[in-house]
Design goal:
The protein is of the alpha/beta class and about 325 residues long. The protein contains 10 helices and 13 strands. It binds nicotinamide-adenine-dinucleotide. The site of nicotinamide-adenine-dinucleotide has 29 residues, from α1, β2, α4 and β5. The site of nicotinamide-adenine-dinucleotide (NAD) has 29 residues, from α1, β2, α4 and β5.
């Protein structure tokens, strides 16, 4: 039996998560439209799809409602990933972060409502748990936001809920927890910790851990995130929509453990990396000590079964970086 195929709009499709989603859904035979302004995404993430007749690249900015309206034409599902990530970036430039992450989000939501898409699935964030000290994090118990970025991601959830209630558009928010894997950008001032450390180790430089190394995170491999997007897109459970889900593995790893894991895996490719020492620096503003997701809601309502632990994910990611990092 041939599975049904759809037209899927992936905003931020030239970024880390978006380009992985493009690749996955193209491989499944769907039509994919990628909307991106290349603010933090890269053409090299999507070059291999440009010749695919099922792939369309729209270079444009979600801050333009007209652009969003063009992008959603005849689209079945929207996977909205476009945003300016990074807590430090939002502390430095809250205005641009708000314009993209809040006004841009609202534009996409309005355009999707007007185009009557089947469902609007969006990248939410674990930063919405803010100062809550509860572990594990359960979807309906959040604290106060700790950064402008966290505010924008929480506002997304509020808008999605109101749009579901008042206009009937189906939405699902996926609160991503520290995603990592192939194609995540190691460069730039706001690089995420895993690609940054990999690049530094590969250059035989010492990575700097913010704090004493005991802070912990629920590091989540990209393929688990892809699985959640697909489940959110295709679920037929009426009780599974118009809500948010933790998107994580459901285990936590300290930064010191992470560094050891990276070193062990990288040393298989370059034995000198085993001897590189790590530097400890001050804690970073807006960072919470620990983060760990409960994935029960995703398991029970969507049937989520994460396939990659951090160990398995790091093994895959390190091998990818070793062969692809330029
Ligand atoms: P990324 O920076 O690699 O991807 C974001 C993409 O959005 C980029 O390609 C960028 O060019 C595009 N973009 C930015 N502003 C735009 C605009 N105005 N118009 C059109 N496109 C624009 O980041 P990512 O890690 O792939 O993150 C994807 C989404 O997931 C974001 O919404 C982010 O907030 C969210 N998220 C990521 C993580 C993580 O650990 N990576 C965690 C929580 C939430």
């Amino acid at each position: 039996m041939i599975n049904k195929t759809y037209k899927i709009l992936i905003t931020g499709g030239a970024g880390f998560i978006g380009s992985n989603l493009c690749e996955y859904f193209l491989a499944k035979g769907h039509q994919v439209v990628c909307l991106d302004n290349f603010a933090t995404g890269h053409l090299h993430n999507i070059t291999s799809f440009l010749e695919n007749k099922h792939f369309t690249l729209l270079e444009g900015d979600i801050r333009s409602l007209e652009t969003c309206k063009q992008a959603v034409k005849e689209v079945d599902y929207v996977l909205h990933q476009a945003a300016l990530g990074s807590v430090p970036r939002s502390l430095k430039d809250p205005i641009t972060t708000n314009e993209v992450n809040v006004s841009g989000f609202l534009n996409m939501l309005v355009a999707s409502r007007d185009a009557k898409v089947k469902r609007f699935i969006y990248a939410a964030s674990s930063s919405t748990y803010g100062d809550s000290e509860n572990l594990p994090k359960v979807e309906d118990a959040i604290g106060k936001p700790l950064s402008p970025y966290a505010i924008t991601k929480y506002v997304n959830e509020l808008y999605a809920e109101i749009f579901s209630k008042t206009y009937g558009i189906e939405t699902i928010g996926l609160r991503y927890f520290n995603v990592f894997g192939r194609k995540q950008d190691p460069n730039g001032a706001y690089a995420a910790v895993i690609p940054l450390f990999v690049k530094q180790f590969m250059n035989h430089e010492s990575p700097v851990i913010n704090g004493d190394g005991n802070y912990s995170r629920d590091f989540t491999y990209i393929d688990n995130v892809i699985q959640m997007n697909e489940l959110a897109m295709l679920t037929e459970n009426p009780e599974a929509v118009n809500t948010v889900y933790n998107t994580a593995y459901g285990d936590r790893t300290t930064l010191t453990q992470l560094v050891e894991l990276l070193k062990d895996n990288l040393a298989l490719f370059d034995s000198k990396i085993a001897d590189i020492k790590v530097i400890y620096g001050p804690n970073r503003a807006g960072d919470i000590p620990h983060s760990l997701a409960s994935i029960e809601k995703a398991q029970s309502k969507l049937g989520y079964k994460p396939k990659y632990s951090i160990e398995q994910g790091i093994k895959e990611a390190v091998s990818w970086y070793f062969y692809n990092l330029k």
